[in-house]
């Protein structure tokens, strides 16, 4: 079980080092006056620091290295 968690942390850590965030589009209402509605697409972004991916990668390696083989 620990080895599986370690491998998942390694994969997520590598992915977070390669991709430091992502963007998505959200539709927001600008004007809502009865039957008249105006909306616009707004681009939002989610970013995380690259060192977080490094921490997860190192943590995963430590878990895999210290887990006992059955």
Describe the SSE topology.
Blueprint: H1 2-18, E1 21-33, E2 36-47, H2 50-66
Antiparallel strand pairs: 1-2
Helix pairs in contact: 1-2
Protein name: DUF3185 domain-containing protein
Transmembrane segments: 7-25, 48-66
Keywords: Membrane, Transmembrane, Transmembrane helix
Polypeptide structure, described:
By secondary structure, the chain is an alpha+beta fold. The chain has one domain (2-66). The protein contains 2 helices and 2 strands. The protein has helices at 2-18, 50-66, and strands at residues 21-33, 36-47. Strands 1-2 form a two-stranded antiparallel sheet. The longest helix has 17 residues, at 2-18. The model has no long low-confidence stretch (mean pLDDT 90). Keywords: Membrane, Transmembrane, Transmembrane helix. This is DUF3185 domain-containing protein. It comes from Mucilaginibacter pallidiroseus. The chain crosses the membrane at residues 7-25, 48-66.
| Structural class computed from helices and strand pairing | alpha+beta
Tell me the number of strands: 2
Radius of gyration: 21 Å
Let me know the largest β-sheet.
2 strands, antiparallel
Shape: rod-shaped
Poorly predicted segments: none
Number of domains: 1
Mean pLDDT: 90
Query: Strand fraction band?
Result: 35-45%
Number of helices: 2
Keywords: Membrane, Transmembrane, Transmembrane helix
Protein name: DUF3185 domain-containing protein
Transmembrane segments: 7-25, 48-66
Organism: Mucilaginibacter pallidiroseus
């Amino acid at each position: 079980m620990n080895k599986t968690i370690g491998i998942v942390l390694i994969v997520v850590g590598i992915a977070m080092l390669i991709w430091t965030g992502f963007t998505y589009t959200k539709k927001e209402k600008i004007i809502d006056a009865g039957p008249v509605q105006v909306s616009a697409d707004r681009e939002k972004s989610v970013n995380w620091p690259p060192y977080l991916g490094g921490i997860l990668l190192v943590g995963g390696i430590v878990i895999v290295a210290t887990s006992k083989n059955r």
